[in-house]
Design a protein that fits this description.
The chain has about 100 residues and is α+β, with helices and mostly antiparallel strands. It has 3 helices and 4 strands. It has one domain. Helix content is about 30%, strand content about 15%. The protein binds zinc ion.
Length: about 100
Amino acid sequence: MWHGGDLDLLLVDLPPGTERFATLCELVPDLHGVVMVTIPAAVSHLVVRKALTLAQEVLRVPLIGLVENMTAYVCPECNTPRPAVSPAARSRAGGAGARPRAF
Ligand SMILES: [Zn+2]
């Protein structure tokens, strides 16, 4: 249970997975939403998908946003955005499901 007083916003950065998320929901029962963060790799999408399922279907916490970090970088020589992760790494452990699907 949160006893730290009134807050406008509390951001908690959790490690990948679902175990600590359930604990957070017990500590902060009035959770208004979650922002999920992933990287462009199928395994990360899988982990986020599981956490999102837990959040929405079990804990009834809505999704506020979904962020994909490390999607691209800007080449310092030609200023062109390039993928930050190779296609092989992007699809590893996920094959065709490498891109996030609509949740
Ligand atoms: Zn370049």
